[in-house]
Every structure is written in C-alpha cells, then in structure tokens.
Write a structure and sequence with these properties.
Number of helices: 8
Oligomer: single chain
Order of helices and strands: EHEHEHEHEEHEHHEEH
Strand content: 15-25%
Structural class: alpha/beta
Largest sheet: 7 strands, mixed
Strand order of the largest sheet: 3-2-1-4-7-5-8
Helix content: 40-55%
C-alpha cells in the first residue's frame, strides 16, 4: 500500500498514457496512479486496462461516460482517493508537461515540510516554461498576477495543475461546491485552501509543453477563469464560499 496517489485525467491521450504511467511508477518513491478517463475515442482507457495486469494494485481506472471537464474529473478522483485512505493526493497532466521526477519534491514538501498544499510552480523563481509560444506564457503569467490582485493570495502560479494535497485539505474543502472546470478550477481549489488557512508552498519546477497529442485549452476556459476569480472573491466577501 502507498500513502500517495497521482490522479491523471485523460481525454485522447493514447500517445502519452503508457509512457507517463511507466515513468510515474518507476520513481524511487512508491506511488499509485488513478486515471480518470472521459471515454476517450482513441481508447486511452483500453490501454490503461491492459497495463493494469502488469501494475496490479498500483494502477487504477475510473472511466466516465462522456467528456465532462477537468474540474469534475479531479473532484471525482479526490473523492475516490479519500475513500481509499490516501494521505497525499496529487494532480498531474498526462502529457509530460509535468516531470514525474518532480513528484517526490512535492511529496517531501508535504510529508517532511510544512506544506498542506505543495504547488509545482512555473513562476516562483522566474519564468520556467519550455516550448510555449510567448502569448501563452504571458497569458498564464499575468493570469496569476490577476489572481493575486483579486484574491490576496501570495501565489505566483495560481493556475498550476501539478500539485500535492494533504488529505486533510480535501476533507475540509467542500468538494461538492466546486463548480469550475478549467483554469478557474485550479484557482478555486487554491483559493478554498487559502481561505481555510492551510499552508501553501510553491516548489520550483520546469514546465515543458506537450510534444504529443493536442492541448485542451479553449477560449471558454479563459473566460471562465477571468470571471470566475471575481465570483470567488465575491462569494468569500458574502461568506458563501
């Protein structure tokens, strides 16, 4: 049994899924993986099912009926992880933009350090992003600046999707109240953690854009983030968060 589960949502990640699973499970630290697949047309889930025989007891799959958004996938995974008594619960992308070698850094920040939430941060020591076009870097960087101004959180990478939560954080956050699905989901989770006065620590990482598969970014996700931050702040002001 491991104390740590890495949740990886997937939709059409057949080009990456086997490699990311093998890389995570080959780390010195003993991790488990939960794949949340949204019925990928490219049969990502079938590949996971095939690999489960090799990684019995370490690789798990939850297959949903349709594509329902990143936020709902993670909430599904959080509830599964809490029910299965994991102490450290990670978010991670399937496309190697997050380096599996950095998982242990996040774990150590929570297990041995003071962090209740450890963030794999692209911006805490400058801009550590590889292969992104300049407009994407600027969008992401200034999104975090905007979030800091609106919410008061002292976080350099508010939209980061590479994180580790202690189980106590997810137990106290009202997961059924989470409404956002893209960038705004990542912001909402950090803001709820911040409002509960948990300790948030940023760990510097190098983020590398995917080389296989397609990005899930869309204009609707950006719009949700812009207005979602204001919505979160207003809910906090009126004690309805």
């Amino acid at each position: 049994m491991s104390d740590s589960i890495v949740i990886i949502p997937t939709y059409n990640e057949i080009e990456n899924i086997e490699s990311i699973i093998r890389s995570v499970l080959s780390q010195h630290k003993h991790f488990h993986i939960l794949i949340i697949d949204d019925n990928s047309p490219d049969h990502t889930a079938d590949k996971v099912l095939f690999l489960q025989a090799e990684f019995e007891g370490r690789l798990f799959l939850e297959k949903r009926e349709k594509k329902s958004g990143l936020g709902t996938a993670y909430v599904h995974g959080f509830k599964w992880a809490l029910a299965n008594r994991y102490d450290y619960i990670f978010e991670m992308d399937a496309d190697f933009s997050h380096n599996p070698n950095d998982l242990e850094k996040l774990y150590n920040a929570c297990h041995f350090g003071t962090a209740d939430l450890a963030i794999g941060s692209r911006y805490v020591t400058g801009v550590n992003v590889v292969n992104w076009p300049l407009n994407r870097v600027l969008l992401s960087y200034f999104a975090s600046v905007y979030v800091r101004l609106i919410t008061g959180m002292k976080i350099h990478d508010a939209t980061a999707g590479f994180v580790c939560y202690k189980r106590q954080v997810l137990e106290e956050i009202r997961l059924d109240k989470i409404r956002f699905v893209g960038y705004a989901f990542q912001i909402e989770m950090k803001y709820r953690t911040f409002c509960k006065k948990f300790t948030i620590v940023e760990i510097p990482i190098i983020f590398t854009d995917r080389t296989k598969g397609q990005s899930k970014m869309s204009n609707s996700i950006i719009i949700e983030a812009v207005f979602g931050v204001i919505s979160l702040r207003l809910k906090k002001l009126f004690n309805s968060l």
